[in-house]
Amino acid sequence: MFDAIPTKAWLLMAIAAAAFAPARYLYSHIEHSPRARDITMPPEDLGWRTSEQLIRSSVVLAGLAAIAIFIFTPAAEKFARSPEFFPILMLGFGAFAFFSVVDGLLKGRIEPLSRGSLGPYERDTQPKRFWASLSWNTVLGGAFVWLAFVTIGQADEERCYDRQTGHTPQEELSACNELLGRRHNSSQDRADILSARGYAYHRLGEYQKALADYDQAIDLDPANSYAFYNRGLIYQRLGDRRRALADYSASLKLRPENAGGYLNRGLTFLDIGRLDEAIADFTRLLELEPDNQWALVNRGIAYAWKDNRAAAERDFAAATAIDPSNTVVLRGRALLSARSGDMRKAVDFLTEALRLDPADAWSLRMRADLYWRLGEKEKSREDDDRLGRLSEDAEKAQTDRAKQVAPAVPTGGN
């Protein structure tokens, strides 16, 4: 219920509630100035109109105005992303309300918060209003404290599930661990939290820990398509294509509209030479997303391996129309040229791809092979040496032909 209300709206409502009473007092203080009093009217009691209260109200309003301005700055936006910020703010308002209650009991006078009264009520002279104000401040303080504890739980869920951008994996891990420590979690809740924590480990590159969490999530909830999909990404990255295919297929069975599942299963089929199945997955992805350049270019590569030049060129042209700088198209055209025997033209395509992306390990490896076949062994060795220096991209050449693939964000659903 509270998730739909933006944080800034909560803050502005809290500021407005806190500002109402001092603003009303300031207005009344000016309106009831003795200088502006009509001398024909009977004298009025201005005992409530004090310099001390005026200064206090002015300081409070100035502080609240500064906070209201601050919350719209970039620094405040970053600060407000802290999940503890809103609960702490609510606790602060609650503490202020309870302080007014204790202070009222000790001094025998109290001013109701956010009521807009003209002054404090005395226990001796206005007992009914005094006790009503005391009760009101107590209820208001309790509401603020209750809201603080409610939003603490929501803040942990927000961080764990990464429902908003900007949380670091470490913050997500901390929140997920906090949620896992709660005793009231159902099996479904625990599965969702483990899937989300696995996602955080995944982002950190701690693949074995991520796999362990995904395994547990799937054991608790065999219908968790996100856990299957993300576990498949890790298996693919680790070179275990058999398990990757099984997990992608399981995810797609549960969530047939998962575009990422078709892309990555298609890439895995392409890696192991199951070209017809790769083409089928890329085609299905294009039915879901007609402008998906990665489906087009990788289907074109599959067609190139099948020596279907017309179909490959058609897909490459469509991908280029979407993104003229797509270097994977150049790889595909290099493959077409090499398979048709024009190795020199293939080298030219790969050289252009490397000009656009010097860290393109796939193009380096293929160009090194082509140089060797062309008898230009020195150039081939230079490319091999350069490839060796790109150790972190050597894995990318095997698993990320189209792009670096990020895990899917768990949403608490299947």
Write a structural description.
With 414 residues, this protein is an all-alpha fold. Among the domains are: 2-34 and 48-161, no CATH class; 279-414, Tetratricopeptide repeat domain (Serine Threonine Protein Phosphatase 5, Tetratricopeptide repeat, Alpha Horseshoe). It is 72% helix and 1% strand. It has helices spanning 7-31, 51-70, 74-80, 85-107, 127-161, 169-180, 187-204, 207-220, 225-237, 241-254, 259-271, 275-288, 293-305, 309-322, 327-339, 343-356, 361-373, 377-389, 391-399, and strands at residues 109-110, 121-122. The chain has a two-stranded antiparallel ribbon. Helix 7 packs parallel to helix 9 (225-237), helix 13 packs parallel to helix 15 and helix 17 packs antiparallel against helix 18. The protein starts with 6 loop residues before the first helix and ends in a 15-residue tail after the last helix. Residues 396-405 have low confidence and may be disordered.
Keywords:
414 residues; mainly alpha; Serine Threonine Protein Phosphatase 5, Tetratricopeptide repeat; elongated
Helicity, in percent?
over 70%
Number of strand elements: 2
Output the strand order for the largest sheet: 1-2
Counted by DSSP, the helix tally is 19
β-sheet strand percentage: under 5%
What is the first-to-last residue Cα distance?
21 Å
What string gives the helices and strands in order? HHHHEEHHHHHHHHHHHHHHH
Give the overall silhouette: elongated
Q: What would you report as the Rg, rounded to the nearest angstrom?
A: 33 Å
User: Mind describing the biggest β-sheet?
Assistant: 2 strands, antiparallel
Q: Which structural class do the helices and strands define? A: mainly alpha
Average pLDDT taken over every residue: 84
